[in-house]
Specification:
Two copies of one chain form a homodimer.
Chain A (H helix, E strand, L loop, with lengths): L4 E5 L3 H13 L6 E6 L3 E3 L4 H6 L8 E3 L9 E5 L2 E5 L4 E4 L2 E4 L2 E4 L3 E3 L7 H4 L1 E2 L3 H18 L11 E5 L3 H20 L8 E6 L10 H13 L2 E5 L3 E5 L2 E6 L3 E6 L2 E4 L3 E3 L1 H5 L9 E2 L12 E3 L4 E2 L1 E2 L4 E2 L4 H19 L14 E5 L5 E5 L2 E4 H28 L6
Parallel strand pairs in A: 1-2, 1-9, 2-5, 9-21, 11-18, 12-13, 12-18, 13-14, 20-22
Antiparallel strand pairs in A: 3-4, 6-7, 7-8, 10-19, 15-16, 16-17, 23-24, 25-26, 26-27
Helix pairs in contact in A: 1-8, 1-9
Protein name (chains A, B): NAD(P)/FAD-dependent oxidoreductase
Keywords (chains A, B): FAD, Flavoprotein, Oxidoreductase
Cofactor (chains A, B): FAD
């Protein structure tokens, strides 16, 4: 009997968890498993804001895929996915193609710019190791250039963060910790630096407990962040951004750095491959398969799951992606063994913690609200847990966060 | 009796040495001494190529002026000199002015671009702490951006160094040591990086021993430097440089970074103040005074002294500037005490070492040629000696180079 070919696209939280669980449950003789990823490393998407601000080196937020997979059971292929041909059961890569019997799509997210002019050209997004270190270096270069100009341009030192959601707030927390270091490094007066957070929605961290949100805003304001809430970015330019002000008026905010952290969408490969999707996210069946495609599972940022309680999609998180990976692996194992009774996925939200820098955070865990050092400790434990689940204790020791006080 | 007012402009090697020696020989009741400098720190001009390449942190190449002057004897004024009004015996600063009885001009050098189009706009010069860290960050940003572009531009990783004189060669030595680190940091293939040294003159390091020059060129070539000797830069552009090729032809060399290290001239304040000068350098009298100005001494890069043996000016070096500072201080002390019999300055060239990175160098010292580790050791001793002469043993311990093998 021919072994089924399982192809996993993407080694993010969802794809890598699927691989990690599959290699434990499926024998070498049961399936032929391939894992495809653009880079030869996995990165912690939820830590990228730290690498972007320069508070954590980018090598701390990534690890080699070959360190966590069992190469006797899984073949790793470094490649960029261009398209999925579902009718032909083939995946087209930049340099080659792969046939599959079962496919796991875990291709992650891309920045969603909502068609705002100039964002693609002039704003940075916190989406990968490459983009994180470019943001870090861009900000450093602005600071390094400041004292070289005969007429000092204070706007060089201004940083606009578009979006007061999770990524925006976590990035602001790191950035405000980093600025004093940058001021010392480049002999810049701290008071010349401006950090402006622009958010189109009428609130910071929508969906979060209002008391915790107030704490976060007040902590960030104390560290110098200026919030412009209910303010939409109309355009990004080489000089900064144009925002709406009142009915018809606009205002220019000059800034040397613009970081767009106001939204992501699923991979563009989804639509290119003909899946029905909303902003690149496929509304999956309870067993995580794409509707009409019994051989395609979708996990992570490309999967859309509705929270029935509020009739809105769950925000895509690492927590959910990893839980999906586990269910996906079990369902794949079942199919491999000829069982068609698949498990239903139900997210189990254990808690949510939003960091405000290395030393502060807000969150709810085990049903309890927490702020400050306690929440920050919890955040680090969550980060270490993700390492543990994907790579076991040795990965925690290698990449874990132990700067706990 | 009124105390004479001595004003020293510039805290480079010449000015700071004048101050350091004056405070040892002249009593508080003998003279009123002021030292003016743009920054509150002195920097090692001869170490800037290291900070520019990123092999030595810029804080290692500077120290606070107040750490080396005796503030009971010398008043430090942070200010930028705009003009010297010799008739009125006054110095105009950006924010104020100072009267003097005796003046020491040690205002240092500026890049000389020989009117080459685009160099001021698109090339960096190794001239200050500010410019050094901007060069370092510019190169890092080019590397950080490389992997972010869908279509990779190898020219981003190309670095053109204009000039194969002392600064150019020493910078190349550091740069070639730094590139492998940058490649690791930004996941860049080492073979994609190009370092091109363009020199209009027909030789590398003119005036240096040919055997040593051959060693230097071959060592740098081994580390990836491509030499384009006898090649003149016609223009610098945002994309790179245009060089002459043969009679009428030109060639474009695309590069993300252009560093101009092919020449300096004396401060532009010299000409602005009406001194007779050649490229901002005043041909001083044997006692270091400017011709026709018995109250103005000139030291360092603004002073021109002829080497009678070859009937050409001595190249301005830290060694000569410090020796001038010593003589200048003794002559000022003499004038203060009413003596008009001033000392004649004669350079005493003890040796010259050109570094080729942290671990290699070429040089002549005590009449002996040396290369490799031995020459590199000598270079570090010369660097430590400059610290010792300006700030004593404590400064050597704080900023000295002890990475000796």
């Amino acid at each position: 009997m021919r072994k089924p070919k399982i192809v996993i696209l993407g080694a993010g939280y969802g794809g890598l968890m699927t691989a990690a669980k599959l290699q434990k449950t499926v024998g070498v003789n049961e399936a032929d498993i391939k894992l495809v990823n653009k880079n030869d490393y996995h990165y912690e998407t939820t830590w990228l804001h730290e690498a972007s601000a320069g508070t954590l080196h980018h090598d701390r937020v990534r690890y080699e895929i070959r360190d966590v997979i069992d190469r006797n059971k899984i073949e790793f292929i470094q490649g960029t996915v261009e398209e999925i041909k579902t009718e032909e059961k083939r995946v087209i890569l930049e340099n080659g193609e792969l046939a599959y019997d079962y496919l796991v799509v875990g291709l992650g997210a891309e920045p969603e710019t909502f068609g705002i002019k100039g964002l693609k050209e002039y704003a940075f997004s916190i989406v990968s190791v490459n983009s994180a270190r470019q943001i870090r270096e861009h900000i450093e270069y602005q600071f390094a250039t400041y004292n070289m100009e005969a007429e000092k341009k204070d706007e060089r030192l201004a940083i606009v963060v578009g979006g007061a959601g999770f990524t925006g707030i976590e990035f602001l927390g790191e950035l405000t910790n980093r600025i004093p270091e940058l001021c010392r490094e480049y002999d810049v007066d701290f008071h010349k630096v401006k950090i402006i957070c622009v958010e189109a929605a009428p609130m910071v961290l929508p969906g979060f407990d209002p008391e915790l949100v107030n704490y976060a805003v007040s902590q960030l304001e104390k560290k110098g962040v200026e919030f412009r809430i209910g303010t939409a970015i109309k355009e990004a330019t080489p000089e900064g951004i144009i925002v709406g002000k009142g009915e018809d008026e606009v205002e220019e905010i000059k800034a040397g750095t613009i970081v767009w952290a106001a939204g992501v969408r699923g991979s563009s490969v989804i639509e290119k491959s003909g899946f029905e999707a909303m902003r690149g996210r496929i509304k999956v069946q309870p067993d995580l398969r794409a509707p009409g495609h019994d051989d395609v599972f979708v996990v992570g940022d490309c999967a859309l799951i509705i929270n029935e309680e509020i009739n809105r999609p769950f925000p895509p998180t690492a927590q959910i992606a990893m839980q999906q990976g586990e269910v996906c692996a079990r369902n794949l194992a079942a199919l491999t063994r000829g069982k068609n009774d698949l498990e239903t996925f139900t997210p189990d939200i254990k808690g949510t913690v939003c960091s405000l820098g290395d030393d502060d955070a807000i969150g709810i865990a085990f049903g309890k609200k927490m702020v400050g050092g306690k929440a920050s400790f919890m955040k680090k434990m969550i980060d270490n847990r993700a390492l543990y689940m994907l790579g076991g204790p040795s990965l925690v020791l290698k990449k874990g966060k132990f700067n706990i006080f």
